[in-house]
Every structure is written in structure tokens, then in C-alpha cells.
From TrEMBL, chain A:
PANTHER family, alphabetized: DEHYDROGENASE RELATED, PYRUVATE DEHYDROGENASE E1 COMPONENT SUBUNIT BETA, MITOCHONDRIAL
Oxidoreductase among keywords: yes
InterPro entries reported in the protein's UniProt record: PDHB_mito-type, THDP-binding, Transketo_C/PFOR_II, Transketolase-like_Pyr-bd, Transketolase_C
Described function: The pyruvate dehydrogenase complex catalyzes the overall conversion of pyruvate to acetyl-CoA and CO2.
Enzyme Commission code(s) on record: 1.2.4.1
The name this protein goes by in its record: Pyruvate dehydrogenase E1 component subunit beta
Catalytic activity: N(6)-[(R)-lipoyl]-L-lysyl-[protein] + pyruvate + H(+) = N(6)-[(R)-S(8)-acetyldihydrolipoyl]-L-lysyl-[protein] + CO2
One family name in Pfam for this protein: Transket_pyr
Organism: Nonomuraea polychroma
Organism superkingdom: Bacteria
UniProtKB/TrEMBL annotation, chain B:
PROSITE patterns given in the database record: LIPOYL
Catalytic activity, EC: 2.3.1.-
Domain Lipoyl-binding, chain residue ranges per copy: 3-74
Top EC category: transferase
Entries under InterPro entries matching the protein: 2-oxoA_DH_lipoyl-BS (IPR003016), 2-oxoacid_DH_actylTfrase (IPR001078), 2-oxoacid_DH_E2_comp (IPR050743), Biotin_lipoyl (IPR000089), CAT-like_dom_sf (IPR023213), Single_hybrid_motif (IPR011053)
Protein name: Dihydrolipoamide acetyltransferase component of pyruvate dehydrogenase complex
CDD domains in alphabetical order: lipoyl_domain (cd06849)
Amino acid sequence: MRVAESLNRALHEVLADDSSVRVLGEDLLDPYGGAFKITKGLSSRFPGQVLATPISENGIVGVAGGLALAGGKAIVEIMFSDFVTLAFDQIVNFASKSVSMYGRPLRLPLIVRCPSGGGRGYGPTHSQSLQKHFIGVPGLAVYEVSPFDDHRELFGEMLARGEPCLLFEDKILYTRQIFEDGIADDLFRYDVLPQAGQVTRVYLEDPEQADCVIIAPGGMAHRALAAMRTLLLEREITCLLLVPRRLYPFDVAPLSPLLERTGAVAVAEESTAGGTWGAEVAQQVHSRLWGRLRRPVSLVHSAASVIPAAAHLERDVLVQDTAIVRAVQELLP
Amino acid sequence: MTELRVPKLNNNDTEYLLVEWLAEDGAEVLKGDPVVVLETSKAAEELVAEVDGVLRRTAEIGATCVPGEVIAYISDDSAPPPTAADREPTSSGPVITAPAQVLIDEHGVDPARIRALGKKVIKRADVAALLETGVDAGGDSASSSPETQTRPLPAVQRAVAAAVTRSHHTIPAAFTAVKLDAGPAIARARVLSKEARALIGLPELLVSAVASLHEQFPMCFAEPMVADGPGGDLAVRPSPAPNVGVTVDVGHGLYVPVLHGADRLSLKEIAQRLTAYRTKAMRGAFREEDLAGGNIVVTLHTDAAVLLAVPIIFPGQTCALSLCAPQHEVALDSAGNIVKRTTVTLGLAFDHRVVNGREAAMFLNAVRKAITA
């Protein structure tokens, strides 16, 4: 099953299970079913729960936030995550504060879905990974879709938090198959660490035996796997990949034993350089494991540049598997 | 027996979904019949049979297929379709790391011994341990380190290779070039671009100029052929309309899409179609009809340092032109004053069996005039 289909199924189940859930967004009525078809079929099956809106991200998220605060549950689709900045005020100044600033905790079950990332030649305004701008906002959780995840469970977890969540969905995943039965490919297997907040752990044969740990969100999974294959076959370097389901809040403590064992950690993400999620993770790793690290945590991210539309220029800017290979090699000279 | 392979349908996806077979397994299909529907992340695309014959499917509905993969065979029933056993890789042996492979090659280790280790991944240490337990007798420390292993060319480049090799073997080509004072033409193109609201430059002017000379120089657009089968006399088949191929290479390989009936196209239309072709090249979205039916080629050499380029004549054609990058130079005007001017080199490679130097020069000069007019 492809990731797009898996997300679509999950949304169908969410709406069927809970009639208080509303889905809002642009162009998501059938037969179009959203720009990436993630909301396909929802409006036909649940006409009362799906609301197509004008192009007004600020308005959509405002309505959804109000709806969630008033006892409903809301899932918003931002057609391209680049435009979530238009709703920044509603997310940061209204929704995330409302859960705590009225003197008693209030529930605000809201998910803002953000198709993000480049690699498809959509240019500077439709290719960004803006996760980093939402890291560290009190009352706001940031998630990222991964091909290892159970997406029904993921939506359930986010709605159950009772506070606003952003869900970044790397567009390149939509057409990829989801991984099943603990098998990533012919070389690598995976399992999930529930105690670490559902972090997926991808390993060669024995998760306890690795030379280096790569921490990367779901959109990077295929690039990380490609890098791990190259490192293994060319240099006999074995990596352990950790894919967190929730990017923020993120607690590195349960992962410490794994990180400590190798003493070599790289964080990979597609956000552009500077003030990134990876830097936040690295800071936590340094604070906990200083003295047991062989080298400072390596950060892999896209260049500090707008994202070009031309494929060959875009490649130069965005993180490729080769960048992860380089970073790991530098950690293990 | 013809393979039905999954083409590269777009640049977004690395794999497609097989959503529907339009012809039954074992059905007779005719060339051009749609047989299967593949779904990309954006669209559904039909593939057609390239030959007449009996369809033998090798992939199921719902299968994920990647560009280049064979999903069916179309046979004339003279040969049985390959069985699953033929298609499977011969053995799914262990994955061997490069350092391990070097050691294996150095010592000529028997692959059976490697397989016998029963490991998923063979590392250098595994091979070293194997060697300690007894070196293979007579193992000659031969060759193929990973650096020297051959790598296959991509499909587009293999097609280019086949065409240029055939051209080189079969077409006795000659080459003539002229220098063109491009300043006025570039200025004119700039004005035309504004009027037409389309990007018109020297390439567009050249395509238009070449097309306009179709009637005047029919031999330059003709198809050379051997009459009465192999060994017969050389003959030419004139072409009814100028179909001008233009080289496009945006980094994914060389394509020569064709502007059909280019003499009937305005400069604006030529510019629009070339732009559309460049977009298709970016996406790898060319259709067969975009690339077929050309009878002359214009090759563009836009790298600023290229002074002169000798194009390869496409098999089945007589002429190929090359347009090189504008160069700035100092020249003397009619009054003897020093002036700055911009020139380009315009080259013509021609099949000397059917076109002679005099006609080539006349054709080139006529093109030059038409551009600078």
C-alpha cells in the first residue's frame, strides 16, 4: 500500500469512528479529493463532516481551532505546507495558547496537515520543509509522517493529545510503499520503541550493534536507507536509523543508551540550514552525552537557499543520501 | 517476441501502479492498441502495443512497477514466452561489501564457499576468516575491483550511441561552416520576443529559416535510401514538408524532438513548441510522436565557449546544422572604423552522397540570409 492510500484510509476510519471530527481545506471535495488525493472519497462518504473552503489558510485554521475549542475535533489540509505560514498567527497565537491561558486546561484537538518537502521540481514556493518554524512553541506538537508508521494510530494519538498538532507529510512519500512486517528492504529490518514515543528503529541485523546512529524524520527515510546501504557496502559502516514520530516535544532520554553505545550521532532533515529541529536534537544529545560522544553531533540539512525549480539545481540544494554518507564518514574517520 | 517495458512517465515518481490490463492475457493485440494502464502520482497513462502479436502478461494488477521493468511480452507465438524461472535472478546470494569483494577477488575465493557462510551480508572480516581456514588452491588473483567494473549506460544514452554509430558507419559526411554577423538578428529577436510575448532567439530564427528553404533545397530534407533492396542503387525520397528536429539536453540525456511542418509555424509558435519540448525534457515526458518523423536536425551548442561543432547526421536524413554560441569580436566597418560585433558559427554537416559542397554552401548562405533578413 502506498503512503497516500494509507493516509487516506486512516482519515476514512477517523471520520467513521468519530462523527465530531471535521475535515477542512481547499479543493478537497470529490471527485478531485485534494491536490494529493489524501482526502479522496471523504466528502462523498461523510458529506456533513467535510468542508471545502476558499483559499484562506488563516481563516480555515481559525475556524478549525474555534471548532476544536468548542468541543469538536478538526483536521485541516494545507494544500502545500509553504502556505501554513499564512496561518501562523492562528496556530501560534490562538490555538496553541488556548489550551492553557484561560486559567484551566482546555482541550483543542486540532491537526493541521502539511504536505511538504521538495524533490518534485515545484520550486521555491511549493517545496519547503518549514518544520523548524514550529519547533519550541508551548502547547503545539509537531509530527511527521513516516512510511514505517500506522497512520490510523498516528491520527488517533494526535487527536487524543487534546492540543493542536502539525503533521508534516513529505510529498515524496505519497507514492512510496509503506513498510510492513518489520522489513524495510532486503538488508534492513525495523521495529518500534513505544517507550521512546513510538520511535522507529531501523537496523541491519542486530539493533545493538551499530557504528553510528542517524536520527531522521520520516521524509528522510528512503535517503537514510540509501546512505546506510552505501556506507555498509562501501565502507562496512553499520548504521542504526531512528525515525521519531513526534519531532516536538522530543525527549532524547529514552534513546540515550542507543546513542551512547556508538558515541557517533548524525541528525538529518530537509529544512534549510540554521535554527533547525536537528540543532535542537543535537543540543539535547550534547547535554546528556557530553564526554561519551566521539565527536559533536553532525547536522545534515538543506543548503541555506530558496529551493530552485530546475531539477539539477534543486538537487544541489536539498539533502541527498550522499550528504548523509559524507556526514557519517566524517563522524567515523 | 517484443518486451513491453515500463517507460519513464514523469520525474516525480520512482515507481508506478499497474491499475488495469486493457487486454486479456493471451489476447491478440494490434500495434497501437492500448493494453495497460499505469498510474503515476499525478495521472493515469495508457501504454500501447508496439507490435502485432499475442499478449503475455508478467505483472498483476496492483503491482508496483519501475521504469525499465518488463510487464508483458508480445509474441508472434513462434516462441514461447519466458517462464518465471527465466526472469528471476539466477541466485539471491548474500550482499557482499566492497572491501569483502576486493579480498574475494584477490584470493579468487569460490562463490560457493561464500554462500555456504549463510550470512545476509558478507564483510571483509568474514572473508578473512574464511581464508584463514584454508586458501583456495590455484585461485588466481584476478582483476575486477569495483573501480574497474563496467557500468551499463542509461537507456537514453544507449539510443544516442546506436544512432551516432549507425550514422558514422553509413553516412559519408562532409562539413561546412559560415560565420554569421548575429547582432542585427539578436536585436530583431528581442523586438519579436516583446511583440509575441514568447522567448524568441537565434535558435527559433534558425528553425524558421531552415524550414522556409524546404522547397528551394529539397535534397537537404530528403531521405537517402538504397533502391531495390540491399546492394541496389542509391536513391532519395523527397520529403513533403520540413520537419525540423531540435536538440534538447537538460541533463537527462539528449533528445531530438521534431517541429512538424515547421514552415507553417510562426516564430511565436516555434518558440512556444520549443519551450513545451524543454519542459517535457525536464519531466522525461516525451511521447513517441514528439520524436518521430524529422527530416533535418538543428543542433544547439549554447555553452559560451563553443566556437564550432560538427553535428552527426541522423540516419535517414541528409543534413544537420549546428548553431554555436555568440562570440564578441572587434571588426572593421566599411569606412575602416573599428567596431564591436557579435558573431555565431553556423555549421552544416551533409551526406556527401546526395549533397555536394556547392549546394551545401548555397543552403548555408540562404539560411544565413533568412536569419539576418
